[in-house]
Amino acid sequence: MKTTTLKEKMMNVIKIIGTTLLSISVVACASNTISDQNSKPDFIPKWDIAPQVIYRIDDHRFISLENYDHCFGDTYFNNTKENIRTQLGRGGIELFRGRLVIDDPTEKNLVFASAFPGGCGSRGCDAALIYSTDGGRTFKSMYYMNHPDPEKASENYSILVAKDGFYVAEKRSQTTDSTYVIKYPLVPNIDLDNPYPEGVKGEGFALSKKSLLPLRTPSGQDRFTCDASIRPSNLPKEK
User: Fold this and answer.
1) Per-residue model confidence (pLDDT) at position 106
2) I need a labelling partner for 77 at 20 to 30 A (CA). Which of 104, 106, 129, 214 fits?
């Protein structure tokens, strides 16, 4: 019988912890430097400010931005009909500049992409998106982009959510029709970082070869909006 060394046991524990953190994380980006990974979390202020709705799906589902300044803060998914309120993250979801269309009549499938300001270096930052198949009660995450400036690069992405999955469309060139689309399946409890269940498939195709479905958010909104002129009333006084 093979004896497991203490080093191997520690490596197994680290792998388990890392997988667990990724599965529940809704943080916008993962750092690529050891110094950033070991740094302590920044102090989170408590601003006296009313929530803003930065994305509305319909009359009862929306994303609110709370405890924010200069449109940087905490994001929540809200469903007033089902009494659902789920925190999505801080400093990520609201920075996504691309298009987002949610058009699932069952109201089960939701996808929200995040971004991150520049300064990631040549190795870039891994920008994540989060997805739900239970109407927003729980979310899982996956990476959809790596870039030195994910916030700027997110302008080239469109996320379109349907009843059987979601499409990630990336415009890879500004001068030619080079948009490439990847469709990810959404079924209850699916983990997109693992092999799909039997019979469940995704696909990839160039937009020049195949058209997307004519999806539309019920509210008509397809981008995040935020009024940056709204500021907290308890900001420190300027000296």
Assistant:
1) 97
2) 214
